[in-house]
């Protein structure tokens, strides 16, 4: 979700109707889902132009989700703050301009502000109930596959590493020398795939999620828009805010969500999980993995 001032109920409803819309109305809806701040400060013609559709298509989209028209639809968005998103190259050039000017104070402030806001916006749209359902699916699964490529590869592997201190069914994919498709070859209704990708969406992640779903596996999707093709295929979908002045999507909220999800898995697990984590760390101490210092 891009703005906590916008009713998540309306955006959730729009995301749920996405597959039922005509291709043109879907374009309008996708634009709204990805740029909710724009709705409150833009006319129907401006939204239509930005979404590359006709104005009456935007009106039909609004009516599809239960509103009388665009003005009625726009009302909950009026207080949203309009913020345009720059492409990666533009952001990179902007960072270089700041560095040349010697003015890194503004960049520092922007980074901190966006990091805090991303976490707030992410958790404002996620309920404890939704996290509990996803955690229960994970705990009851035979195998849990975590998939992320690019920046999200490290996020997926860190989640798997942490989970593996007390559980054995976690596998970060793709394995070295393999592909996600091969690693999911034997996945079925007993398994869970946790997949993550942000704009621009990685096609191999979306495709792997679709294959796993066809094989019966439950999908937990993490992405930065309700319109993400990954979330459209997910049984449990979570939207993370990833705004940042730098040219890569921010991973702050993704990491925070994964850590929270893992804490829920431990909370819904049976009592043996505590003993397993304790034994895991006791073994590390015995092997001298931790630096004990002088006694």
Automatic annotation (TrEMBL):
InterPro entries: HTH_RpiR, RpiR-like, RpiR-like_SIS, SIS_dom. Transmembrane segments: none annotated. Residues 8-84 form the HTH rpiR-type domain. Keywords: DNA-binding, Transcription, Transcription regulation. One of its GO terms (biological process) is carbohydrate derivative metabolic process. Residues 134-272 form the SIS domain. The keyword DNA-binding applies. GO terms for molecular function: carbohydrate derivative binding; DNA binding; DNA-binding transcription factor activity. The keyword Transcription applies. PANTHER family: GLUCOKINASE (PTHR30514), RPIR-FAMILY TRANSCRIPTIONAL REGULATOR (PTHR30514:SF18). This is MurR/RpiR family transcriptional regulator. It comes from Roseobacter insulae.
């Amino acid at each position: 979700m891009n703005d906590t001032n916008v009713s998540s109920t309306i955006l959730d409803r729009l995301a749920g109707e996405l597959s039922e819309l005509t291709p043109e109305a879907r374009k309008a809806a996708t634009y709204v889902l990805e740029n909710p701040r724009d709705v409150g400060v833009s006319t129907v013609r401006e939204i239509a132009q930005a979404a590359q559709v006709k104005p009456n298509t935007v009106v039909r989209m609004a009516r599809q989700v239960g509103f009388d028209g665009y003005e009625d639809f726009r009302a909950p968005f009026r207080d949203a703050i309009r913020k345009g998103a720059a492409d990666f190259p533009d952001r990179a050039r902007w960072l270089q301009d700041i560095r040349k000017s010697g003015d890194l104070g503004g960049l520092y402030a922007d980074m901190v502000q966006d990091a805090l806001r991303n976490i707030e916006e992410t958790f404002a749209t996620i309920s404890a109930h939704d996290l509990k359902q996803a955690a229960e699916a994970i705990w009851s699964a035979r195998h849990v596959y975590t998939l992320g490529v690019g920046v999200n590869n490290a996020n997926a592997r860190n989640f798997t590493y942490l989970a593996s201190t007390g559980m054995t069914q976690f596998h970060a994919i793709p394995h070295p020398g393999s592909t996600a498709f091969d690693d999911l070859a034997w996945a079925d209704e007993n398994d869970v795939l946790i997949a993550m990708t942000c704009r621009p969406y990685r096609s191999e992640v979306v495709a792997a999620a679709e294959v796993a779903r066809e094989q019966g596996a439950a999908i937990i999707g993490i992405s930065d828009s309700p319109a993400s093709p990954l979330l459209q295929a997910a049984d449990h979908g979570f939207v993370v805010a990833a705004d940042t002045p730098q040219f890569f999507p921010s991973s702050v909220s993704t990491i925070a969500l994964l850590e929270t999800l893992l804490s829920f898995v431990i909370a819904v697990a049976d009592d043996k999980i505590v003993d397993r984590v304790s034994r895991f760390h006791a073994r590390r101490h015995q092997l001298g993995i931790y630096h004990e210092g002088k006694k």
